Structures are given as structure tokens and as C-alpha cells.
Amino acid sequence: MTTPPIGQEGGMAAVSDQYMISVLRPFVAATGPVLGGLRDADPFRLGKLAQRRSLELEGPPREEPPATNRRQRVGRFVRRVRGRALDRLATSRLPGTPRWAVMSPEERDHWWVGRVGRFTSAIAAFPGIGGALARRLPVSDILGLSAQGLVICAIAGEHGMTGRDEQVRLLAAVLFDRDLDPQGDAHDAQVERDAADLTGDLHRERSGDGRLRALARAVWRMGRSLFALHDELGRRPQGRWAWRTLANLPVVGALGAYKSERSGLKRAARRAAAWVAREHG
């Protein structure tokens, strides 16, 4: 990506609107498959089990014949325990379950904060996700940026705001306190190529560890793309002062950085929901 042009706004140097739009459009375009991957990431197949159990509960109850020996009694006990566990799972807040279908947009917002926050925190433990470049860049800032951007776009989608340039405006307002007016085609060939570079091989990985690693690499690349707006990063929602201070200390710094990013992520989510309500309420 080229060096960002600099403009003057309010007497302070700032990244130009057009350059910011050129960075945010591919990010927004890439959020579709990445958020889909985060929503559907189910390494233990809990979502599928929950859906299957909910369908079983909708059908007529099954009567078991009386147990006549120890083996049958043990089998019945195991089935009962499994059934109770699946009953709890069927009422859990997982995409595709009946509970998810009746959740309010605000409840889904909260779910996205938890899902994205936990995943981006786990990425830091993935060896080699960012390659050699990760050792020269602030990993916490890059993953924090990616998490905030993804949660903001997820919230927009849950509230019915799906237009790409609407989400570009939302990202600019929440992350950088900028009021953008995107011009041109949000779906042009260059945007699509840049978005494909961000998602990488995610579309080829269907399941298992390979998909999780492809998803992790995509999240890293998306955060790195936003890092190109480094002159504006001081404006993004920050964590609480106490956690940011703790992040600078030895030994406990990792905990402080984690807590700070989670706190900043929640602030970004609240700002996004307020912006959507104000603009599209």
C-alpha cells in the first residue's frame, strides 16, 4: 500500500479522507467471510449438536423399553445424562440454535464482543501467524484494531446496516472520529482484490485446524491493514487507564494488555451501537 497522503484538518496533520476510504473499503469487504468463519467456528461441533437436539425435542417423545439387566440400565443412565447435557446446549446462545433466533440485536452484539475478543486474544498464542513481521510490530495494537473493526461491522450487520460504505462511515466514526463521505464504487475490482488478499486462503479451508489457522491469519492481516492508518490510531477506543498502565509493567504486562484491549473492545461496541441507533434508529 502506498504512503498515505497527508491533509490538514483543524490545524493538525491527518490521513486524507480518500486514503482512509481506500483502507477501510477492503477491510469491510473482507469482514463477510471472516465474520462468517468466526460465527461458524465450532471445533467441538457444539452448534450442530444443539441444532440436532432442538429438532429431537420438537418431535414426539421416545419411550424406552424397561431395562432388564445391568448393561441396559447403564446404557439408559448414559443416555439420560447425555440428553440433559444436550438439552442445556439446545438452549445455549450459539448461532443456529433456537435461542439465537430469538435473541435481540443487543444480545447478539454482546455475543460478538465475547467471540471476537476471545479469538483475537488466542491468536497471540498461534506460532508464526504474523511471521517475522510480527516481531517488529505491536501485536496487541494490530489484533486490537482488527477485533474492534470486526465487532463494529458485526454490530452493523446485526442491526440491519449492511451497505459497505455505510460500514466504512461507521468504522471511520468509531475508530478514528472521522466523518467520511465515500465516493465511487465500493465493489470495484481493486477493492475486491485487496479484500481477497486479506482473507487469503480462508475460502479453501472448510473445517478443522486448517480453517482456524486460515481465520487467524486473515484476522492478523486485517489488523495490519488498519495499522496503515497509524497517524490516526490514537483516536481509537482505548481500554481503562488502569489496565493500560498495568500493560507497561513487567510480568503482569500481558494481563494488562489483554484487559485493556477487552475494555477498549467493549467501548468500541457501545460507540458503534449508539452510532447505528442515531443514524438508522
UniProtKB/TrEMBL annotation:
Region (Disordered): 52-74
Basic and acidic residues compositional bias, start-end: 53-65
Domain of life: Bacteria
Protein known as: EcsC family protein
